[in-house]
Design a protein that fits this description.
This protein is mostly helical. Helix content is 54%, strand content 0%. α5 crosses α7 and α7 packs across α8. The N and C termini lie far apart (58 Å).
Amino acid sequence: MDLVAEHSRFRTWGRSEKHRVTQDPIRSRRSSSPTLGFSVSIARSIFAQPRTAGRKAALVGAAAVLGGSGLVMGVASSASAAPTAASGAQATAQQMIGDSAQFQCFSNIVSHESGWNPQATNSSSGAYGLVQALPASKMSSAGSDWKTNPATQIKWGLDYMNSRYGSPCGAWDFWQANSWY
């Protein structure tokens, strides 16, 4: 069966929870291939997304990657991914800061500086981490795990913002005026 026909059957199948159990066209063939179970979960993730160009691109990419292998799907979807490092770092920062206004100011800076990526590196300056410390080794004053631990980077960043600008919101005010802090 071609991918378009399979897509059409899967889309029809996925419309109600009742049909999910009884009319899954892919699940009925799962035992013939150990990788079909993985493909089913990926297909569900893709088809659960709203109809967008991104979903279509994922489907086309899956078909291209698998070619003549006979599998229906084979791409990973971020929809079913575990929580990201960014959300964990944000929760850690929120807990460490406490005050919601100060957290929002801290979050604004980190979002602009690193996108909440604890390994973010500025290729031209060498600034590193959530708060883009320069030089990066400054963060070692907060802990020896500064390269890999977002909590250590957050602690160093808060100390820096508090000592230089009085608070994360003071740092954010400066950042807004200068696009750096």
